[in-house]
């Protein structure tokens, strides 16, 4: 992965927008990120990690700390990063969760985190590109896929932040394995391992299934053979331990069952013969008793039939008379029907006479028809009155509707007038409000400038108080420096005076016999002076002079610093306009409030203008509507008056036509009903006359039929008459009686009962039947036992075939799955795998060994050949062999844990391991290309020699095209690295960047 461009706004100590072009600053392959402690160096690492993963580099840190507290609260904190991986070039823009001031009112509102991800064509494309997603989850997944590392893996291989530099070195074997699998792209071996292991499990499952089939077949055989638990368990054990002997044991069980089946078949045949003999004896005895009972029964029936012979003779005569009366029944029923019709006609006539006018009840048919015609003439004359009545009702409804419409129109007219009357005051009120809002808007620019000036004065007042607080310390420092200078100068004066006093001793030491004195010129030196023990030398004076020079420079610097602070105080006081912090804050708040009022008024002007336009349009609309409605009311009033006059005239005409009835239709209906009743009376008179004629005709026909049938009068007919159903039933009874007589006589005279002797003795049947039932039960039990054994033998032989097939299938499965089971166990780290390593971990250990080998090359240089890293597969408890690391100390020839290393040793050991990991991954195809590496700690713990070796190694990385960023405040690194990103701290404690490339 290669970083190209980073932009961040309102992030950490960076209140503004800062940008870094990694392509430029990292062109040499090595750059320095330096600045004072706490200035924001690690914030750049956090910004990179946050842009990619939405979290900062240190796992223990809160991601919300990335939001700058120095920036304007309204400024949105945002990080934009352009990076390149094997999948392409991407630009990601991410904002954290933060609080911002509410747009309206006081307080703050929470802004949720957001992210956008683009795919771009070139690293310089900072605005365009294809938007891939703006969903947090989708973007996180796509970035993790493109980079190939999780956040934890990223900070262990690409960015090594403070506090987590040695995490990979000290990580557990499982965590190292996850990271290495991701970095080296060895998931393929994991998938192969999973497939092979799954194939092994399936093969073992097939074996278990085959064994289960044998077990089930043996169990089914034992159940079929009826074996007890002990025999069943013995067969199961034989099938597992000695399957070759199983066939003989099965054959022995089957032979025993076949023998038992033959004995059961013999017992069944004997029971069948015994039952047949008993059944034959019982059948003969039962037949003799049945013939005797039959004879007795026929004799009893013969006596009973003879007693009923007279009864059936009388029944035959009654049936004959009933048959004789059947031809007359039709005429009698017809006459009865005619007489019923006559009674109905007379009843209907009486009812019809009661319904007509009394003057018409006794009238003739001709008179009644004349009266009905008169009524219908009157009805015809009411047609026009009926139409007029319906029209009057409709017009009356129209009149009511018109009056209601007139009332509603008058109400609307009143409402329009009231609304029109109130509009002028409303218009005046809105015009005044609009004028006031425009006045406030006209002050918007002035107030904006005032607010900005007030804000700057507040910032200056805040900085003024801070600078003023630094004055006492600067004064104290300047005073102390001056005191130190005075003391040094006093000491120098004393030394110079002592030096002059002691110079004679030095000259005395230089005198030689015969040589002139440099002071007096004498060649004799009887008593030359000698220096005292505490004599001041020239070197002491020179040293004190140098010290005074340093003190003078320090005093000058302190004085300059004090003058600078005082000048800053004066400048800030002037910039604050002479206001104190509280006054400046109050003025800034007042100016901000005035600006907010003008901004709100700007929106109010637009709304008020729109409202005034709407009100004026409403006034014009109401005026037009009032004029139109006034005309409508006048037209409606005229129409109502005309319609009311017409309704009154037509109502009088309708009342005359009603003639006291509720309506014309009611009178017409009443007249029609009277005419119908007269017609009904005419019809009733005609029906009565017809019914009388039918009765007379039917009486003559009945009398003729009675005479022809041999009946002298009607009473004799009714005595003989019977329904046809009675006749049919009685004739059937007579036929059944005659049939029974014939059957009894034939039975008594037949040859079947000719030799039956009623007085002879018979065998006792009950004991014989009991013996026959016992023989039958024994026969059924024997047959059932034989059938059960026969079926058991067949099922058992079938089960033997199943066991044989299961054994053959098991042998085939074992042969087919031998390779799959063995390979599956080996790949999973079991079976013959003596290393107890699965395939994926074995591949990772081989890769890890390569990493350790490359790391030892650098570590030998860093440690002067003292330390090497060794891989260990030692187990802890029941854990499998892993990716453990130990340190071999060549000085003591001891191998120890990495946790025993000191801080500096841990740093360069971890650095060697991280660099080796990047180098090995770069050499491997299909893994993650670690093209950028950041180091964020540890250089201050190294001695100069080790630092030289580390820097030499980092500089050597440029040959492979990688870029290494060193994050440190160590002064010595500035002279070694030319390209750098400097973090500068402003007076207000915010930071900015200066890039040197």
Concise synopsis of the structure shown:
This protein is α+β, with helices and mostly antiparallel strands. It is built from 22 helices and 17 strands.
Low-confidence stretches: 161-165
How far apart the termini lie comes to 21 Å
Largest sheet: 6 strands, antiparallel
Helix share of residues? 55-70%
H/I helix tally: 22
Question: Over the alpha carbons, how many angstroms does the gyration radius reach?
Answer: 66 Å
Morphology call: flat
User: Strand content of the residues, in percent?
Assistant: 5-15%
pLDDT average, as an integer? 78
How many β strands by DSSP?
17
Structural category is alpha+beta
* Biggest β-sheet: strands ordered side by side in the sheet: 2-1-4-5-8-9
Task: Give your account of this protein's structure.
With about 1000 residues, the chain is of the alpha+beta class. Helices cover about 70% and strands about 10% of the residues. The chain has helices at about 20-25, 40-55, 135-145, 150-155, 165-170, 175-185, 185-225, 230-240, 245-305, 310-355, 365-380, 385-440, 445-510, 540-575, 580-660, 665-710, 715-720, 725-750, 765-825, 840-860, 905-925, 945-955; strands at about 1-10, 15-20, 30-35, 80-85, 90-95, 100, 110, 115-120, 130-135, 160, 865-870, 885-890, 895, 930-935, 965, 980-985, 990-995. The strands form 4 sheets. A 6-stranded antiparallel sheet has the order 2-1-4-5-8-9. A 6-stranded mixed sheet has the order 10-14-15-3-16-17. Strands 11-12-13 form a 3-stranded antiparallel sheet. Helix 6 crosses helix 20 (about 840-860), helix 9 (about 245-305) runs antiparallel to helix 19 and helix 10 packs antiparallel against helix 18 (about 725-750). The chain starts with a strand and ends with a strand. The model is unreliable at about 160-165 (pLDDT under 50).
